[in-house]
Amino acid sequence: MPSLGPQPFPGQEKRLRLLAFVRQDAVIRVDKRVEDTAMVWPHLLLIEFIVAMLWLVGLFIISALFNAPLQDVSSPDHTPNPSKAPWYLLNLQELLLHMDKALAGVIVPTILLFVFLPLIPYIDRSREGVGRYFTDKTGLRIFQFSAVYSTVLTFALIFIDYLAKKAGYIEWSSDHLPGGKQLFPNWLIPIGVMFGLSALLVFLVDRLFGATTRGKMIALFTGFVFVYVVLTFVGTSMRGPGMDLYAPWSLPPTIQ
Amino acid sequence: MIRPHDETSIQAGGMIARLKRRQLLRMGFLGGTVLAVGEIAGVFLPFFHVNKIVGLGAKVPAGKKADVLAGFKSTNDHPVLFVEGKFFLIHPPGAIAAAYRKCVHLGCAVPFNDAEDRFHCPCHGSLYDKHTVVVLGGPAPRPLDLFNIEESGGNLVVDTNPLKLLVRSDNKWDPALAQVKDA
Amino acid sequence: MLDLPTQAWEWVRRSYVWRSFFRHGYPDSRKNQSLAVFTNVFLHLHPVKVRRHALAIPYTWCMGGLSFFLFLVLTLTGTLLMFYYHPTTDLAYADIKDMETVVVFGQLLRNMHRWAAHGMVITVFLHMARVFYTGSYKPPREFNWVVGVLLFFLTILLSYTGYLLPWDQLAFWAVTVGYNIAAATPFIGNEVSYLLFGGFELGPNALLRFYVLHVVGLPVLAGFLMAIHFWRIRKDGGISGPL
Q1: Which B positions 52-71 lie with beta carbon below 8 A of chain C?
Q2: Predicted ipTM?
Q3: Domain B59-181 in CATH: superfamily?
Q4: What is the mean pLDDT of chain B?
Q5: Nearest Cβ partner of B53 from C180, C195, C199?
């Protein structure tokens, strides 16, 4: 906007240049005492160097002791039983046994990875508890509660599904339920269980611990982590030939 | 570059004219960028689409019809495996058909079991009939899917495109599926 | 006579050439320590000073740094493996066999690459958990959390594409599971799996595509996102800490 005051002569306007833009968060705060900071060289670099060397040595030792697996050359005619994905995807493969392929393999991971996780900082926008594990004692209790809740429930759901299918639940639902063995067993019930139990978790931490938004996020994220770990564990060490359920200590080897 | 406006340009409505021109330019640049990015993305998709298919997906020749029928006769209708096309030639009543060997349960490769004289999937124990590949037992929800098969000049050609499968919902042989008669 | 090495070292240090490389003296004073970090392209990922609590190992467990360290190890060992590997269905498996039996230190290299890859999936996941539980995604670090989630996704993809390359039974059927999952995408599943794997089944096209993605496409993308990730850590005020 042009100024309405007296106009300066051409060439004599006051020129301003942006030299630097300093934000409070971006610099070490001046009100902190000097003792609160440490020089990167040597303190941080020394730690980084030692940790990197320890891990390198550890990696050498592990690599010298254990060989990477290599089986026979691939043959499309010969399916190993069971054929399993890499362990970090076995959680998805485990999920696949309990609901529709599209739901377990695509929709749920997409929502988790591209909706739930990225949205966390945009839902929980307070600066409460930055820099402290679990924010406070309540947060720690929420974490412990959610960990037990999701571990126990995930195991329980896997066993319930196992027993129900053993008792002929799929055949029963294809005869008696609308939509046959697709709609209810593969879509509505799994979606209901996933949303229902997440909502119940949020409700419970709200009631039991009076959780803030941060507390509810801790509950949901902990649920995600522990469900992920339990599913990975079950998929890795409790699924034998035919993807049947076995105890981890009596898992039969893969039939090649 | 910041230039001081002079009075005349504002009075003459030049300010608005300038803003409009700027907006127009900005929209033009933005639109051009979006268009360019869209075009590049649009070129990438067809680039990654493989047009020449080898093996599964191609039209696989399955030999002379007369030879196949003679083979069936001498081996008591033993299914013939075509590894590269992933199918078995089978001999349902009155026809020659090609069964996709991917188990409809969870996708294992189904072998023919000579001892049991039927198809027996090693993964979950689905059993399929020797002649019509209908389900005889196990968790399979439907018979094995069939490929389209045609006869040209006495030769059999199987279209192994897995997107054009003949999917059967009822567990029996339908004479309408006989694309190539065995006589 | 005995101080000749010292003198020679001093002479090198004072030489015009040395001083054109390093624009500071030995980092034993505050000024030189600052300059050492400030004027070095590798060290300038760091600020000159950090808040003291950021040094506490029980706070970060070094998981982010270790993920980057494993990425570097994987880049190095992977590049070495590339010298003996042909991404074709005829040769891939034999090359890996040769790697284990013929190439000097080949088995060790392959083991390191494999275990470091598994390790990186774990460290990245633990890093994400650490960042979450210390509330380090909170303002002003929201965007960096999103970049981190993408990096986690890329880590999984890198690991998964690498899994196919030995072309053994383990690789083939593990990736087939992924093929079937991709084909189950609603509405566009067949197109997605056809584009990703270059066919209706795992074949030469799939192996080549996974190879190119594994050694070029995904690492470049990951490097790009890592640059943003590290840059933003500094711009958002360094390692998070109590207010």
Answers
A1: 53-57
A2: 0.92
A3: Rieske [2Fe-2S] iron-sulphur domain (2.102.10.10)
A4: 85
A5: C199
